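Reproducibility note. Readers wishing to regenerate the assembly model reported in the main text can use the exact inputs given here. Chain order matters: entities are listed in the order in which they were concatenated for prediction.
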Amino acid sequence: MKIKEISERYRAVISIYAFLIIFVLIFSIFFPVFRTPLNISNILIQITPLALVAIGQTIVLIGGGIDLTVGVVISLTTVITANAMGLPFVGILVGLILVFVISGSIGFINGFLCNETNIPPIIITLAMASIIKGLNLLYRNEPGGQVPKILNKIIYFKMGIIPISILIVLLFYGIFAYFMSRSKLGQYIYAVGNDEKYSRMAGINIKKVRLSTYIICALMAGVTGIVLSSRVGSGSPLIGDNYLLDSITAVIVGGTGFSGGSGFILGTLGGATLVALMSNALNISNVSPFYQYIVKGSLLLIAMILNSIRKK
Amino acid sequence: MENNEILKISNITKNFTGVRALNDVTMSLLKGEIHAIVGENGAGKSTLCKIVCGVYGYDKGSIIFNNVVLPNGDPQKIKELGISMIPQELGLLPKLTVLQNIFLGNEKGRAGIIDTKKSIKISNDILSDIGIKLNLNTEIARLSLDQQQFVALARVLATDAKLIIFDEPTSTLSSEEANNLFNIINQLKKKGITIVYISHRLEEIFSFADRVTVLKDGVLVSTEIVKKTNKEEIIIKMVGRELLKTFPEKSRIMDKVPVLRLENLTLKNKLKNISFEAYKGEILGIGGLVGMGQVDLVNVIFGNEKITSGSIFLNERLIKSIDPSKAIKIGINFLSSDRRGDMLFMNRSVKENISIGTLKYRQKMGFINMKSEKGIVNNKIKELNIITPNIEQEVQFLSGGNQQKIILSRCLIKKPEVLLLDEPTQGIDVGAKEEFYRVIRQLADEGLTIIVIFSDMIELLGMSDRILVMHEGKISAILNSEEASEEKIIKAASGLKTKTE
Amino acid sequence: MNSIYNKTEIKRNNTKGVFVKIFSSYGIYIVIFLLVLISGIVSPKTVDPKNLIEILKNTSVIGIICIGQTLLILTRGIDLSVGAQVVFINILVAGISLGDPKKTFITILIVLAVGAIIGLFNGVIAVKLKIEPLLGSLGVMTLLQGISFLYTKGFAKGSTPPFIRAMGIGRFFNFLPISVVIWIFLAIVFSLLLSRTIFGRYVYAIGSNPKAAGIAGIKVDRTRLLIYAVSGVLTAIAGLIWSGFLGTPTLTGGQYLPLDSVAAVIIGGTTFAGGKGRIIGSMIGAVIIVYLSNFLTIIGLGIEWKIIAQGLIILLLVFIYVGRKSYK
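Running the prediction on these inputs yields the following structure tokens for the assembly.
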């Protein structure tokens, strides 16, 4: 009885992981290269940034909003890490503090505007993304700078085929999954996403809740930027753009809906893995790189169709 | 504060922009009593209770509970002091589970982490106290309405409430479910909890309330001990005058010409084998408890929903597969009860709201004849006495009564043969209601067939030439106005057999 | 409508409401007047008639796209794939005609048909599959990028035939750009369509309250699909003019079109809640955006400033239209 009811509730999450397993199995069989340790290692590295940023987007969506600034925040943070960490040891600390302060502030502004004005969150974050991108480009309009190599050494240190970065991902997912299901604030985020009016009547401080979702999301985008720039070695004002659409795809594929109030952090992990796997699979199977776009676009559309159907 | 008083409301006044919702209300509640609050729509019942709970703040006055002055507009604090309300819409979050909803805003735990074990235990205790068994992990959206009601009650009980306010709790319940609720309320009373019960169903109040307060237009009319008064006195206090005289004279059409005929109409599990006829020039009232299929019936006739089986005949011609645009073409029109949501274009002008739907009669090659449109709209404004500064005014700025008239005039530009109305006088002030009754009767006299859903017994009896009572998706009785009585209607609405046509 | 779009804006009939109403109707004219004034003082080059005509010419592509975008946003839709559409149309024009003037007619026919199909595709996604139009159109955008790549296999070939080139760069009487004439003609046609025809009323009704529109007898889904198809055709026309500008096919470009067009429509007073807005507002909004770019370029500030300014303007204007949030 209990298993049946659990599977009913977590239907979306279970289906994404089932799909993933089937996908991996099929690909491993037809393309042996897929199974090689090197490739698996690569995949795990590629999953990292998307998985991290998608956590934040999941939380914002559950709370009933959306954050279109994640892409530019990632870009901005790569630029910061590449340029503000000059001095050997203190530099990194300063850089990290700067990253969190700046991304946190952006999240704060996003949440503040959502709380105080009637401007739809989509427009707020769209406009903010424009502004931040412009500022970023003003500071530096091409890739450059140098990220301290030690970051790469630490984050991408491999134990066998497993890079530390994926453990970082799992750590964050563990923390946030616990947070969303067991903490008061987590419950409140679901509540506000369900119905703002009733949440307020129940005594929940919706302003505080909403603000925290946007700040968490921006901070996670900051973390993503650090991890990404550590791998690439430099900062770029445009590198984050793709991650916006991908983060939304990952979240939707993972079972969280747009209207807010429901969704699973662990589902997003499945979604991010799938998106990253698809890119990898396309590369390996020697399919023309142009198909990437078609596959990505279709994936998003299919995920949304399924989401619509699920809702009925 | 006197010894056995638990709540004292003094001189509470509340204004919303331009409207005085409560005017100098003073009343008190006695410990452990069941106190009913009655009044028409818009009398201020919900507003008063929301103020007591802190959901709204008040402008003037004060409230004392258990010798403590309540903070103005602080729902969290007031909940902690022991006052809780179950709003009409229940206030539950649909995608969250029973357990989550029970403790919403009141989670048990320390340092921001929820103590699930404790929550589960407390929930199970409360639910078994109420006498209901529920799976704590079910999403609210998957529960039936009365189960949801119990979750809402459990939530209130989890806050150790000493004063519980119920706002129209039975409007969506069947009579068995309602009885269940009354038993629980009595149990709560035995535990010493004070109950406030808002309702407009006088039968319920007279069956278990101790005292009743009547509100009218934001003013407290009087508070009575239930045993020492009766329904008629209360009704007069609610409305302010003898009722029967406010309705226009009924139809005197002798020969009955059937215009609309339904045969064995079935809609999924909402309507079962409905058959009846509606005649030219009559007002056919549809009654029964809310949610018994009345709205579904009207939706099906208008084509908002597709029938599962059965047939509809208009003037003896079978109507195959209908949708709203076809319905309007063949002469059936519909006024939904949800004006804002279903019928009005709030940010468009009066002119557009009236002329939409009949534009093709005033056009040449797709271009609208502006002059003729203006003429027709102005005519309707005069005819129905719509109050608006000009025809370009956005409809959202008009009063409820005027908005209703606008929708009505839209339906009347090309007079339909059958007009379906769902709760047309909801949320309209008394003066506008009377005008409305007159207009509807006039339309019937001109030959329209009018089918109206009234949940208010008084309106139902006062306006209808015949009354069709529904129960659980079936027609339970069809009564002529001469033979109809409140008692018969209630019996039929509860599914008990009476004389049927 | 889910909450990422937020609730409806019901404003009270008080002084703030009146200010907003006036601003919605005339504010756009005030803004552009001020813009021209200030820029004229700071740098007289901007108001030189030759420059102004240049600006109008540069606005024609986005202007035509904005007509469709206005219709969409009015009915609670949106299309962010317009940039990718325009690029694809350019590639199609070059690829089908290969510069041959004899193939002009068939090329235009195919292009318009493709535009309608893409529009309809977006429409089916938004209306029938009920997918959030904003994200659905982003998905379509990605698909179109992929299709453009595949069609050209990385190497775009061919060129724009002379007639279509004329649409983009030709002028009447040596000074009035043909593209501007096409744009203004379409703007007037659609403006009249919206304000004077039954179709226009239906558009406003559907945007204002889709459920009520259905109950009033309007065929909502059908009309919305039609609007998407029309918008697709308009975008295709814009694509033809774009192809005329460029003369040769490229796989890049157009990435600012979707956001710019939405910004123009919003600045022009059309709200996301649906049912309120005018074509003329969007047209002026488009001019403001291009004018702003032009001005910034002239005084030596790059595109970064433009997108910053755009973001700020959107925030400011939408805030004026919808106001502060009140928690009753």
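We highlight two features of this model. The longest strand of chain A covers residues 158-159. Chain A touches chain B at residues 5, 9, 182-185, 187, 190-191, 194-195, 198-204, 261-262 (CB under 8 Å).
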